[in-house]
Write a structure and sequence with these properties.
Length: 248
């Protein structure tokens, strides 16, 4: 009799639980799965970034130029840089020669403007003058000085940090940069970096998922190779004891 009562109570409880489960809408599970997928996709972003490429680049006019928000301005900047590189590298012009030619052309334009306006009209028009603001050069100098000091501080921290892995990685990177620098001069390297800055961000913004997967696969392979190198080479290097032992 007691067993029959227990079975009846259990059946009633199961019916109540099933009815509650059926009454709950399935949207919660769908939303939960969507949120979980969104979190997973966010974690798979390159270097765990949570901001857009536009915000990472500063979010101002410079970011608009790098991401080709205005194609006319971006193409004009890239065309101007290409023209300068062609003049210096292909046509073998020197900076002083181009500067003097630009000054001569500017003086001729101002001379013709002032004289032609005086002959054609009784009231000559004012010739526009080019004046560079002082804040521009001050901001450029402060920015360059801050970047150089940050780089020097990083190099000295790695050199004095007693971390052999970081030290070898930085030395290897500088050696690779030295080898690349021996292939081409500073102007060509600067132009290559300028072109990459105007092409890679917009390409990554358009194909970020594919690039993230490729980079993570590459990083995984590099980590596996470095772990083998660490196990077979670095860990076999004897570590010297820096503490001096007192003689009894």
């Amino acid at each position: 009799m007691s067993g029959h009562v227990e079975n009846k109570v259990e059946n009633i409880l199961n019916t109540i639980v099933d009815s509650i489960a059926d009454s709950v809408p399935n949207q919660k599970s769908v939303r939960f799965s969507e949120e979980q997928n969104a979190v997973t996709a966010q974690m798979n972003k390159l270097f765990g970034r949570r901001k857009s490429i536009h915000n990472i680049l500063g979010g101002g006019k410079s970011a608009d130029v790098l991401l080709w928000r205005n194609k006319k301005i971006s193409s004009s900047v890239l065309t101007g840089a290409t023209a300068i590189w062609v003049l210096f590298e292909w046509l073998n012009y020197h900076f002083l020669t181009l500067l003097c030619l630009a000054l001569v052309i500017g003086m001729l334009i101002q001379f013709l403007w002032s004289n032609a306006s005086g002959m054609l009209s009784r009231s000559p028009s004012q010739v526009p003058r080019l004046v560079l603001p002082d804040e521009l050069f001050m901001n450029i100098a402060v920015f360059i000085c801050a970047e150089i000091n940050q780089f020097l501080g990083f190099i000295q921290d790695v050199a004095c940090g007693r971390n052999l892995k970081h030290f070898l990685m930085v030395v290897g990177s500088l050696s690779a940069a030295a080898v690349i620098g021996s292939w081409c001069n500073f102007m060509t390297l600067f132009y290559i970096g300028f072109v990459c800055a105007h092409t890679l961000p917009v390409i990554y913004e358009k194909y970020d998922d594919q690039i993230d997967d490729l980079v993570y696969n590459l990083i995984g392979q590099l980590q596996s190779q470095f772990s083998k190198f660490d196990k077979n080479v670095l860990r076999k290097i004897p570590k010297g004891n820096l503490k001096l032992k007192k003689n009894d």
